[in-house]
TrEMBL record:
Entry annotated with the keyword RNA-binding: yes
Organism lineage string: Bacteria, Pseudomonadati, Pseudomonadota, Betaproteobacteria, Burkholderiales
GO BP term, pick one: positive regulation of signal transduction
Region Disordered, residue ranges: 80-116
Full protein name: RNA-binding protein
Length: 116
């Protein structure tokens, strides 16, 4: 069992250190990170906590899932592994070019670039 925990629906006031201290009650915390928006620097409302063992992680999930923090019911669960092949911009490994479709291309449909 993994020891990485997803924590969602966090109040925007939660910081890395406060997240770490809340989970430390259930065992040793390896890391705690609240995800921040790159442009604004504000919290995205979720984060990840890595516990030293799977037993500590399960104890924290059981105790904290659904708990109210500043009026928000937080979601605490095991973190899912990251999807492979994801690049920047939200596109996967699939080629999104129009080169494979003969009905789409420049000069075949005016301003929109293709016929449909």
């Amino acid at each position: 069992m993994s020891s990485k925990i997803y924590v969602g629906n966090l109040p925007y006031s939660v910081t890395d250190s406060s997240l770490k201290s809340n989970f430390a009650e259930f065992g040793s915390v390896s890391s705690a990170k609240v995800m921040m928006d790159r442009e604004t620097g504000n919290s995205k409302g979720f984060g990840f906590v890595e516990m030293a063992s799977a037993e500590f992680a399960q104890a924290a999930i059981t105790a904290l899932h659904g708990m109210s923090v500043d009026g928000r019911s937080i979601v605490v669960s095991l973190a899912r592994p990251r999807e492979e092949g994801r690049g920047s911009g939200g596109y996967g490994a699939v080629d999104h070019s129009s080169a494979k479709r003969s009905d789409i291309g420049y000069g075949t449909g005016g301003y929109g670039g293709g016929r449909y």
